Amino acid sequence: MVTLILRNALVVPMTRDGECFCGDIAIAGDRIHGISRGRWEGQANADELDLSDMAVLPGFIQGHVHVVQSLLRHQADHLALLDWLRLRTWPYEAALDSDGVRAAAELGIAELLSGGTTTVLDFGTTHHHDRVFEAAEELGIRMISGKTHMDVGDDGSAALIEDTDRSLAEAETLGRRWHNAAGGRLKYAVAPRFALSCSRRLLESSAELARRHGWLIQSHAAENRDEIAAVEHLTGLSNIEYLDSVGLTGADCVLAHGVHLNDREVELLAETGTRVCHCPGANLKLGSGIADVPRLIRSGVVMSLGADGAPCNNRLSILQEMYLAATLHNLRHGPSALPAWQALALATRDAAVALHLEREIGTLEVSKIADLVAIELSDWSLLPEGDVASRIVFGATAATVRHVIVAGRVVVKNRTLVSADPRIIRDHVHDAWTATRSRMTQSGVAPPGEAHGLVRGSS
Ligand SMILES: [Zn+2]
């Protein structure tokens, strides 16, 4: 039975040979039931949304985010990766209690959905990871996520370091509870943080755990020159060669960044089918460098895009990441390095392949899951008419996202989150950040917002 009809849209199917056309989309339950050029003449008694002056696309997919970091937004600026972790992000994650994890996840998910992102591969912190899945279940995003693992490190990360076996056992329990929950909308991915936070045994056992259950595995790699020098000093290998030696390459493995890679590492990623998520906004803000994405794609590496975390971006906007992906590589390869249509594919069709979800999402086709985003084409920066990929990649922002649907459920309507009460989320964010900031201060970390008297007082 058709439950929702989207009328009068510019349909951008994102299939390989799919042209755009004006038409209707009929949704039945969580699936796309029919797509028609012109008016869909079927069952008439369904809800309708008029998408005149809007483009409808597959919901956007991000291959790397950390919703749990969202409360630290604007509190960790002007730092390079390792200081950003030691001075801000690890103390913040250590200070998060259960309600803090939940509020951070709500904030991150609310922003992601409102900006048109319907699916994410997400990285948790070490504790309270049930609260992230609970928030995702309620707010309605499609999320693959896992608690992070860290079993080695210096003083900066001491509060997050866990016993190797206990940490993995907790992941297994979480995965058994959440993998394929909410009708398959939630999935588990094992998430060892990065080579410098994990013993060799932890990395090997993470890969073994993921493969035993058929879950994805995700980590960070080759992001920052100091990081890769430290990995080489410890292991005698380049970052990707080391990860390959512990089982952290392969088609089920998604590595964020890949900024600094030698020829052998690019070959290894391509040969093994390892997925790489390009995070241009975070790489620029932390001053990490510019991943050579055209070279990776040319070599056959399956790529996606991700905003990474709120404290290193500081937005979770896929439209911003698409814009950066379509402009940044012009510096190295000239102005046609990564055309607008390719940037759009990296956030839809290609990202679905990267996350092994291409049979369900990533394109608009009959019988696929109804994850869709409707973007205003009448916004000033999208006018006049022209190539729709150019208009969206170079002209659209999160503010031009009008409606968002996940699994047939409208979660953002007329630019407002409707799957939860935004006022309650804002209250949760205020209360949780106040409490988290206080715990950080007690443990000797003063967030800059407090130093400058800029933190919102209670009202
Ligand atoms: Zn990350």
Describe the model.
There is one protein chain. 38% of the residues lie in helices and 21% in strands. By secondary structure, it is of the alpha/beta class. Strands 6, 7, 8, 9, 10, 11, 12, 13, 14 and 15 form a ten-stranded parallel β-sheet that branches. Strands 1, 2, 3, 4, 5, 16, 17, 18 and 19 form a nine-stranded mixed β-sheet that branches. Strand 9, helix 4 and strand 10 form a beta-alpha-beta unit. The chain is globular, with a radius of gyration of 21 Å. It starts with a strand and ends in an 8-residue tail after the last helix. The mean pLDDT is 95. Residues 64, 66, 123, 220, 256, 308-309 line the site of zinc ion. Zinc ion binds at residues 64, 66, 123, 220, 256, 308-309.
